[in-house]
Design a protein that fits this description.
Blueprint lengths: L7 H6 L10 H4 L13 E2 L11 H12 L9 H14 L5 E6 L1 H13 L9 E6 L4 H8 L3 E6 L8 H11 L3 E5 L11 H13 L3 E5 L11 H6 L7 E6 L1 H5 L5 E6 H7 L10 H12 L1 H23 L5 E2 L6 E5 L7 H17 L2 E2 L1 E2 L10 E5 L3 H22 L4
Helix pairs in contact: 4-12, 5-6, 7-8, 14-15
């Protein structure tokens, strides 16, 4: 006689000793939230709103159909490295390595710079608010993450950063250029002084240029002009904002002595053959993506102008393909500001538009939404939803208790 099969709910509620093998700090973490966008206009993840023209879609499809997916990636991996080096105009004496998006590169840098021999944990330093993957990578690889708050205008607090570099001597200094989620392109002279101080402290400075297609400048220009001052500097980019978010290709550039060591930690075949071929195809048609970036920059300026006309809101200057918008009334306590922003977010979502509520990411962001710059029609629809949601939120806020 066979035993009855336990129900799935009973099986899931039974003790699972194997969980004890998972680090307690990992079990206490929250997974990275990817919002469901089904049926919504998706303007929450800084994606390029423009797809490939139909003729290029067909050409890419035919090309991918010829890829030998029964084989591991071969020489095309190096072909992509060479194509990206040409595209970025890699400084002399520098090398380039590939990552499965910039997220993998951040993880590899933390892995390579962490200490596993019982010594005091290595330090990682970044101004905050900035990209959430920096502290996450530090935590997972047992580095001590140290945050220095940005100024109220989201520019660098140079004095506080210099003091932190001198006292902590961080292994890694992150400078997002421009910054996510604020869109800020930080003062160039201040960044240069921080990079110089990080070099004196014997650490690595990483310039994260994920949003470079939309920015007025790149730090690679400084590296080319002053190579001796940049031997400890790495510049990281991704093709996600270029227009290939679904392909997952990031790349890290720097002195070949540094890159050769970090590349040792990269898993073999970390990019699939189809991803590589998509990236090569895109670089061969870079002019198409350059034009898309130009349109996004143009739409960003129009969006900023429209947001400035919205009473009670404050859009911050942006050099990315996003705009940080403070929607909460000025002077509101943080908890009330966050609640107001959430009300606006939900109101926009109810009207079919998905943006990002960043209030919980950092105390300085309480009351803020992050809006991805879309096409002209996307932005018009977003502005209409935002205007209506703001009116509803204000009306709800002034109702008697």
């Amino acid at each position: 006689m066979t035993s009855p099969t336990p129900s799935s709910s009973a099986a899931l509620s039974a003790p699972l000793p194997a969980l004890e093998r998972i680090r307690a700090d990992v079990q206490a973490m929250h997974a990275y939230l990817v919002q469901s966008s089904e049926g919504l206009l998706k303007l929450d993840a800084m994606e390029n709103p423009y797809g490939l023209p139909p003729e290029l879609q067909q050409a890419l499809g035919e090309r991918l159909g010829r890829v030998a997916i029964n084989r591991y990636p071969g020489t095309r991996f190096n072909d992509l490295k060479a194509a990206l080096a040409r595209h970025a105009r890699l400084p002399e004496g520098w090398a380039l390595m590939l990552g499965n998006g910039s997220d993998e590169l951040i993880t590899l840098l933390a892995l390579c710079c962490s200490r596993q021999d019982g010594e005091q944990p290595a330090a990682m330093l970044a101004p905050m608010p900035s990209f959430v993957m920096y502290p996450l990578a530090a935590h997972l690889h047992h580095m001590d993450f140290h945050a220095v708050p940005l100024r109220p205008d989201f520019q660098l607090d140079e004095a506080a950063m210099l003091a932190a570099i001198e006292s902590l001597r961080p292994a890694l200094l992150w400078l997002s250029h421009p910054n996510n989620p604020t869109g800020t392109l930080w003062d160039e002279a201040a960044m240069a002084r921080l990079i110089e101080a990080q070099g004196r402290a014997g650490g690595i400075a990483v310039i994260d240029e994920a949003y470079q297609p939309f920015a007025a400048r790149t730090w690679l220009d400084a590296a080319r002009q002053r190579p001796a001052e940049h031997a400890h500097v790495l510049v990281m980019r991704t093709l996600s904002k270029f227009g290939l978010a679904g392909v997952r290709v990031g790349y890290l550039m720097g002195d070949e002595r540094l890159i050769s060591q970090i590349d040792k930690a990269r898993p073999p075949y970390n990019l699939g053959s189809l991803n590589i071929e998509c990236a090569l195809f895109a670089l061969e048609h870079a002019s198409v993506f350059d034009e898309q970036a130009r349109l996004i920059r143009q739409e960003r300026e129009r969006l900023q102008a429209s947001l400035h006309r919205l009473p009670g809101t404050r859009p911050y200057p942006s050099e990315g393909n996003m705009v940080l918008l403070r929607v909460a009334p000025e002077g509101a306590p943080a908890s009330e500001a966050a609640a107001f922003a959430r009300c606006v977010f939900e109101g926009m979502k109810a009207r079919g538009v998905l943006v990002r509520d960043v209030s919980a990411m950092h105390p300085m962001l309480a009351g803020c939404l992050r809006l991805t710059v879309g096409s002209a029609s996307d932005n018009a629809r977003m502005l209409a939803a935002l205007t209506a949601a703001l009116a509803d939120a204000l009306n709800a806020a002034i109702q008697p208790a």
